[in-house]
Design a protein that fits this description.
It is built from five helices and four strands; from the N terminus they run H-H-H-E-H-E-E-H-E. It is α+β, with helices and mostly antiparallel strands. Helix 1 packs across helix 2 (about 25-30) and helix 2 crosses helix 3 (about 35-45). InterPro entries: ArsR-like_HTH, AsnC-type_HTH_dom, Tscrpt_reg_AsnC-like, Tscrpt_reg_AsnC/Lrp_C, Tscrpt_reg_HTH_AsnC-type_CS.
């Protein structure tokens, strides 16, 4: 069941996306409401699944993760058992920040964050030792121009 989102809900969601650590008073003041109605709306959106887990965004480079690779994978295997092993391997690897199954010539794209090229090679060797892939292309990001988790509300 989809929850109906009105403009006040959108304002609250924009504020939470901007900084989920701000107080209810700050959010209420920004959206032009009071604390209790804002809290009730947030609780309803959380219960409806509109709001998921709250987390913090870490500075990857400050923590030594200086390389981002986009990994394009083609496979000749399309059986359920292969896909299950592949998905388990991806989920077990913290280096994989995102994984998408694609339509078109490429079957999967991964966003892999590691310390450097040597760490990527270690990741790659471990992955191909667990699951068979037909072709892998790794693209090193030279510069992150834009990164956001915010939806365009």
């Amino acid at each position: 069941m989809l929850m109906r989102i009105d403009e006040t809900d959108r304002k609250i969601l924009r504020e939470l996306q901007r900084d989920a650590g701000q107080s209810l008073d700050e959010i209420a003041r920004t959206v032009g409401s009071s604390k209790t109605p804002v809290w009730n709306r947030i609780r309803k959106m959380r219960d409806a699944g509109v709001i998921g887990a709250q987390t913090v965004i870490l500075d990857a480079e400050a923590l030594g993760f200086e390389a981002t690779f986009f990994v394009l994978i083609r496979t000749s295997e399309h059986e359920a058992s292969w896909q299950k092993r592949f998905l388990e391997a991806l989920r077990a690897r913290p280096e994989v920040q995102e994984a998408h199954r694609l339509a078109g010539d490429i079957d999967y794209i991964l966003k892999v964050r590691v310390q450097n090229a040597r760490a990527y090679d270690t990741f790659y060797q471990a992955l191909i030792s667990e699951v068979r892939v037909h072709e892998v292309t790794a693209l090193l990001s030279m510069e992150e121009i834009k990164a956001t988790t915010a939806l365009p509300l």
